[in-house]
Amino acid sequence: MTRFLHLADIHLGRQQYGVPQRATDAKLSFQHALSQVSAEDADAILLPGDLFDSRDVRPETLASVEDVLADVEVPVIVSPGNHDQNMSRRRDLTWLQYLNNKGLITLLSADFADDRVSFAPTDAESPREGGGGYVDLETDEGTVRVFGVQYRGAYMERQIPVVVDGIEAVNAAEGEPAATVVLAHFGVDDAVPDLGATVSVASLTPLMDAVDYVALGHIHKRYEVENVYNPGSLEAFSVQEGRWDDAHGYYVVDAADWSADHRVSKRRPYVTVEFDVSGYRTFDDLRAAFEDAVRDEQGRVESVCSNAEFQTGDGSRRDPIVNLRLTGTLLLDHVAFDVDALRDITEETLGALYVQPTDNTERKAIQELLGDIDRDEAFAADGTVNTDALQERVFTTLAEESRYSTAADDVAATLDELEGLVTEDDAGVGEAASYLRERRRELFPDGVGEPGETDEAAAAEGGEAE
């Protein structure tokens, strides 16, 4: 019985939040999945894209993946994803081609030219220099022919018919295999809307009909559509992805009937801690309540971290990534609201690898503004909203609540002018930034700190210099 492991979106080298340990996490998840080859009795590994997180691979990442792949005793068949390549810039040799030429992977890509697609043959034991387009694997069930299609972005949907033509041309010329598999890197919009998918099921149907198994990557969340399978990334790489239970892992594919069983991958846990800042008039009071609230979360966090998929190979705890959601109405001055201090408390109390704050609080002054605007000011005679008046009040309040409050009226006027430059005059980012710099010099020639303090002095104390 022939079996395959289908995994995708490894993103080796990704240092999420600038934390080096996150690059190690990606490697460990990959290693663990590969270590299951023997236990799952797999004959080959299918990896449709994003082995690397970037085309510019750090030397330590490359050395690490070479070591990992050298220990794999079955073919590792790879097609390029959007992070593995740059469609607008070609190099003589990509890192995937380098690994292919060393015999560590079998790289598959289609040749697109003049609205036609062709696939060059390669061999898993001795890969074609630079990579090929398809490889034949001899199995107990007969020849399994595996094709690879690299990431094509928005072009993919309309190129599916010519991809099918290319596959059928190879099968006609070389003889029909026992089964056909295609590796590709795109998302199916009907299955995972709002996650960057670009291909509809209707457009994909000709490919689904032409092959036995469509092995996808690109979307980091697991989904399945008939004979189309997307395993999700091995690691979660955002707070949103961290909330997807059982959505990260790999498939064990049975070539007897092309069924696929999903296995959850080993990864780092994400937890969300929420705190309502409403009602506290001093930061000391808020901090004391926050410390109590975070201590109360310890049991829940430890329960999450104790799940098998979140532990290391030897069963040890993996420190979680914590999303700190701050909500409610803030009564404090924004300067006194020390989010970094709250982050440090969370990290220490919960033993977190990293804490990512999300400030969803509302300033009391802004809330009062929205509830306090006189109806005659907010609405014109015909009952429509007076957007100019509302905008003026909002800009004024924002200016009064900022570190530029000493010139609130002028700052509000600047915001209003900037809004006009962008929405009416179609000013670009550079022009808008230039306007803001000029106005800042006019309004605050001595800087934005205490009277007489320069921007350079403010920067030395942790502020922003121009």
UniProtKB/TrEMBL annotation:
One of its GO terms (molecular function) is exonuclease activity. Gene3D superfamilies: 3.60.21.10. Residues 452-466 have a biased composition (Acidic residues). It comes from the Archaea. Keywords: Exonuclease, Hydrolase, Nuclease. Residues 3-221 form the Calcineurin-like phosphoesterase domain. The keyword Hydrolase applies. InterPro entries: Calcineurin-like_PHP, DNA_Repair-Maintenance_Comp, Metallo-depent_PP-like, Mre11_N. Residues 441-466 are annotated as: Disordered. This is Metallophosphoesterase. It comes from Halorubrum distributum JCM 13561.
